[in-house]
Write a structure and sequence with these properties.
The complex is a heterodimer. Chain A is 76% helix and 0% strand. Chain A is mostly helical. The model of chain A has no long low-confidence stretch (mean pLDDT 84). Chain B is built from 17 helices and 19 strands. In chain B, α10 packs antiparallel against α12 and α16 runs antiparallel to α17. Chain B is globular. About 2% of the residues of chain B have low confidence. The chains are: A mainly alpha, B alpha+beta. Chains A and B meet through α3, α5, α7, α11 and α12 of A and α8, α14 and β16 of B.
Amino acid sequence: MLPILARRIANIIPTLAAVVALVFVLFSVLPGSFVSAMNEDGRTTIDPAVMERMRKEMGLDDPVTTRFAKYVGHIVVGDLGTSFRTREPVTKLISPRVWPSLKLVFAAMCFAVAIGVPLGFIAALRPGSTIDTAAMVGAISGLSLSQFWLGLMLMYLFALQLKWLPSFGYGDGGIYHLILPAIALGVGPMALLARTTRAAVLDVLNADFVRTARSKGMTETRVVEWHVLRNALVLVITTIGLQFGSLMGAAVVVEKLFAWPGVGSLLVDSVFQRDIPTVQGCILLIVTFFLLINMLIDLAYVAIDPRIRYG
Amino acid sequence: MRKLAWLAAIAFAISGVTAVQAQDTPRRGGTIRMTAPYAASFGSLDPHTTPRAQDDIINKALQRTLYNWDTANNKLVLELAKSVSVSEDGLTYTYKLRDDAYFHNGRKMTADDLIWSYTRIMDGTKGFPAARYVRILKGAVDVEKGQAKEISGLKKIDDFTLQMTLTDRVEPGYYFFAGSTAILPKEEVEKGNFAANPVGLGPFKFKEHIPGSRVVAERWDKFYKPGMPYADKLEVLIMAEAAARDVAFRNKEIDTSILGPAQYVAYRADPQLSKGILEVPEMFTRAMQFNPTYKPFADKRVRQAINYAIDTDLIIKRLVKDKAYRAVSWLPPSSAAFDKTMKPYAFDPAKAKKLLADAGYPNGFEFELSTSQNESWGLPIVEAIIPYLDKVGIKVKPKMVEVTVLTDVAMKGEHQAFIGSNLTGPDSLATLRCYYSKTPRTACNYTTFNNPEFDKLLDEAGAEGDMAKRNDLLRQANNLLYEEAPVWFFNYNKAVLAYQPWIHGLQANPTEITHQYPEYVWVDATSPAK
C-alpha cells in the first residue's frame, strides 16, 4: 500500500505544476490589473503616480517569464507570495479561511450522503413505485435549482418566518450558522448521489451473480447487503469523491450569500480585484484538495472491492 | 375619585414625556451592528494601504485623521487639532494638536505621529494610495522619489504644535480627511503585524477580525470626545449580497442596510420599514463620457444632441426607481459651487436631430459604448438609452466589460464612450481639475477636455483666497462644462440607508453614507443585540 500511496502523491505534482502554469498564463493575458481594480467600487480615485509605484512594488511591469520564474522559485519553498491587496503573505490570508471551508464542505457532503444514498437505494429497490418517482423528481429538481435561489428561500423560511436559525454569517463557528449554508450547498450533490446510487444499484440487481445468489436460496436482505451494496458502492464512492473534491471551489455562491468566510469567496473577490498571488494560492489549495480526496477514494476502492488491485 | 383620575393622567403624561426624553438621550451600552456592503471582504485594516470605501467603514471607528467631515453642517472640521492658523500667503498652516488623544495602546498622540504617518505614506517603494493627498506638502515628492528622508514641509514646533507648508493654495482639509491619511502609532506598525492588529485613535478599539465575515471593536474609554462613544461594542458585518441583507434586516439581525433600487421601492411601500430610511445625495456623478478622438464626439453639437435625445428623467424614475437625482452638470448639489438656478438638458429629440444635422450627421452614426454590469450605472442603463438614440439615428453597440477593465479602458483611451460613476466631491476644485487640459487621461481627464476658458477659470479659482469668490469661479467653470457637454449628464447618486427603530445618531454623510462616525451612534434598550 505504501508504494502505491507514494506513487499517487508523486503523480499529483505534475498536475499541480500544470495548474500553476495555466493559471499564471491566463491571468497574464486577462485584461485589467490590481491597480485598475482599485477603482472597481466606483468610489475610489487612484493617482497615476501611485499606480505606477504600485505596479513597480508588485512587479507587474516585469516580463511574464521573470514573474513566473520568481513565482515558481517561491512556490517550491512553500511561499505563495504576497497579496497585492493586503500586502501580507498569501498563506496568512488563506489559512483562516480553510477551516470554515472544510466545515461547510464536510457538512454539505454529510447531508448529501445521508439523504441521497439511502434515497437512491430505496428508489432502486422499488423501481417504478411512487417512492421511486418522487425520489427522482426530487433529484432532478435538486440538480436544477439555483444555489442562490435555494439559499434565499432557506433564509426566508427558517430564519425570517420560523426564526429557528440565523440567516447569515459565521457566528461563533457553531452548528446553528452552519446548517442553512450546508443544506444550500448539499442539495445539488444529494440529488446527483440519489440518481447515481439508483442507477448503480439497478445495474447490479440485474447482474448474473445476484440471480445466482437468489437461486441458491439466499434471503433478499443477504443478497442486498452482501452482493448488491458492495458492488454498487464503487460507483457511489467515485461520485462522492468527485463531488467532495469540487465542492470547495463550488461553494463560492453559498459563501457569498451567507457571508461565510471560506476560500471560495476569497477566490472570487481576488479574481475581481486581480489579486493574482491570492488567486493562485486559492486555486492551488482547491486543486490540491481535489487531488488528495480522489487519491483517498482510489485507495478506498481496494478496501471495498478486493478485485481491485493497483500494480 | 376625579382627583385620582387627574393624578393618574398627569403621572401618565409625565412618564410619556420622560420616555420620549429618554429616547432622545443617548443610552450608554449595547452593540451597534453595521454592514459593509461593497465587497465580500475587507482589503486591509491598515488604512494607509487601502483607498477602498469598504475599508473606511471600519476605519471610521478604529482610526482618526487630522480633519473630518461635519455631516450636520456639510463642511470640513478639525478632528485631531483644536485650532489652526494660516499664514498670509495661505501656504503655511500651524496646528495646535489635541493633547487628549490617545492611541489604543495607551500612548498619547503627538506631532511626531503626524510627521511619521505622512512620511510613511510618501514611501516611494510602497505605492500607498494616500500619497496623492500628502503630496500637497512641500518636500513630500522628494521623499517619494527617495531624495529625502523627511518631508521638509512638516515642522514640529513642540509636542502639540505642528506646522505644515503646502505647495499650493488649497484647503488642506480636503486632503487630510481621507481615511487613508489616518494617524498611526509608529511602534505598532513597525511590529510588522499591523493589519491583523490595528491600533488607532478612533472611538473603538480593535477586538476581532474574522476575514470574510466581520470585524468587532470595543469602546475605547480614553476617546477624546467626552461621554463618547455610547455603545459598548461595534460589529461591522460583511454582507455584499443585497437580497441576503434584506432578509437579515427584516429578521432584525443587522441595524443598518444600504438599499439598492429594488429594495428602495419595497421599503418605501412598507408602512413599517419606510419609517427607517435615511437618504442623502452623495458626491458621485454618473455619466457617459465621450472620447473626442472618435470623430463625431469631437463636435460639441453631437455631444449636446445626445444629452437632448435621452429622456433621462424617465430612466431615473422607471429604471433607477428614483434612487438618484438628475444631474445638471458635473458638480453635485451639495457642492458650494453648484448653480441652483441651472436646469438640466431637456428631453428634446427634435432639437437633438437638428444639432446632429448641423454637425454633419443628418442620418446619425454608430458608436461603441463600454459599460460594466452595474445595475445603477451599467448595462441596464445602456439598454434603456439605445432606443432613444436610435430614434435620432445614433446606433449604440454596447460592449460589456468588468468594472476592473473599464478603468483600464478609460485610462488608455481605448473607448469611443464609456459609462461609469465618478467621485465628485467634496473638494470642488479638485473635482473640476479632471477637466483641466493639463490633467492627463490617466489622472481622470478621460474626455481629454481642453478648453482655454475653462482652464483660466480654474487657474483663477486656485489662486483665489476668498472662498465665496472661488466658489463663484468654480460655478462658472461647472456651467461651462454643462455647455460643452463632454459627457451625457446622467445622475447624482441617492444613497439610501435603512435603519432599525432602535438605532439613533446616524448621519446623512454625503461623502459616503456608510461612513458613519460611530461615536455619535447609539442603540436604545429595544435593540435585540447584546
